[in-house]
């Protein structure tokens, strides 16, 4: 691992991150650096701490030790240990866009307003500006026919595509995907993965937790394997999937669909 | 019934409507405030609110209205009838509304506020833009139902001498010696008022179903 | 002598008011229960000529304040030659009014009843009456008990309206004591305490019934 201090330029920079729930250590001294434009996939069995790691990045979980910088700004606490006031924390969080396993669209708002809500009420954009942006983003995720629909009328795949547009609308420095296809019916997985793949081609910075191995291999620049809160392997996708260094990863890959290099 | 009887009935209906409307308006907001305070779980205050809600829900409106109107002078308060009536209806409906709001709070999912926080909303913006609108939509059918109950309980204020839509029938029959017609007309007017609320409740339910994901 | 001592000396009045309220409440909810079950039974029949007016009657009652019905029975009925005393009119009005609410609660539950059970019973040769009383009614009552419990509390509170048509019950006792001795605050606090105690007791009983019901598996059908 390069130890060069690149936290000024990296989209996400995680140093010495540790976190326990009660007395179970879920993250142990995790180090991770995501460069701008890079796609990093976090893989591991359930309970390995991968979702917790992702949720620490935008401070939905508070780590016990360590530091996280988003686009050079520290999140959650100041360097002198003072907790960040909520307004300041919200500002840094706005630099990240998160896509949840369960979509978490706001059911009282239609599709368009789900996307414009934060640009208007967090960034203070004008309604017109926000709607222009939202229209463009909904087109990008293939949902431009559904502006006026309410979330409860959409399929899971459609909901997730709107959720992606909602996160993109804040023009975040990094997109966080927390198992974005795990709650979908199998036939709807493809449409969501296609959208994410387009984003990676456009150069968006992304950190993704997923079980879709073939997909991870196709879009990632860096694959990280988490086991009991420790990063035990990290590599480019070719190396990771073809010549893993540890037995643990080899076993894990055997138990999952061996991905063809799609 | 002659024209003056009809006039009196309409005046009685107006009294019922305005006193109930004021009580509903105060009761809905006060119920929300109580539900919010109870979220904070402040010791003693929380227990006092639980006691208030339990007692207010069990106390008949007639008894409450008499209690407030008769004992206000004891407590050094000079309440006129209308204020005493509004106070009784409000104290009653607030307790029910507080429970309706509280259950909306409890059913609000953590994921919803996480999505708001993750996108950079402060807790206040999250409350105002995400939580409160959803709670209003989910609570509205219950709140409107409680409004119907308040109208149905409102004749209780007749006991402290307010001439509402029920009491006015006595006044009319004291002159005409025909109690049946004014009572029937009053019943029809109540049905019209409550019918409107039932219709509103149906609309509110249809909207609330949208939130069922 | 303190105000509270006056009230203690007059405890007999409270007590008789309390008993009177309990009596009115007990009789009227029994009546309401029978009326509710009867309406449900009549609604079971599929003859539209009967069910439509019944539905209108039930919905109409639910859109009226209780006191209007009490007025109708007490002040209105003499116009058509039926004269009831205040007590009879009060109990009758309570029974009819809350009977309609009971019927609506039962009907709402009946709509969600799985048809398989009824078909099974019919296949076993149950008559309509037996099917209703042995199969439908017990399950519906056990499943609707939280709603019935709420309705009982409403019925209890509605008994206080009868003070307006001059029935001597609990609230009337407080009212007369407070005007005799000019101690309204204390008198009404005592009476509100009585109402509260009855409600809390009913809630506890309903909860106990819930345990029984859970044990018998009524809730999982």
From TrEMBL, chain A:
Topology class, membrane: Peripheral membrane protein
Subcellular location field: Cell inner membrane
Boundaries of every ABC transporter domain copy: 12-253
One Pfam family from the record: ABC_tran
Keywords: Amino-acid transport, ATP-binding, Cell membrane, Membrane, Nucleotide-binding, Transport
SUPFAM superfamilies: P-loop containing nucleoside triphosphate hydrolases (SSF52540)
GO-annotated molecular function: ATP binding
Principal place of residence: membrane
Source domain of life: Bacteria
InterPro entries assigned: AAA+_ATPase, ABC_ATPase_HisP-typ, ABC_transporter-like_ATP-bd, ABC_transporter-like_CS, MetN_ABC_transporter-like, P-loop_NTPase
UniProt family annotation: Belongs to the ABC transporter superfamily.
Name of the protein in question: Amino acid ABC transporter ATP-binding protein
Organism annotation: Chromohalobacter sarecensis
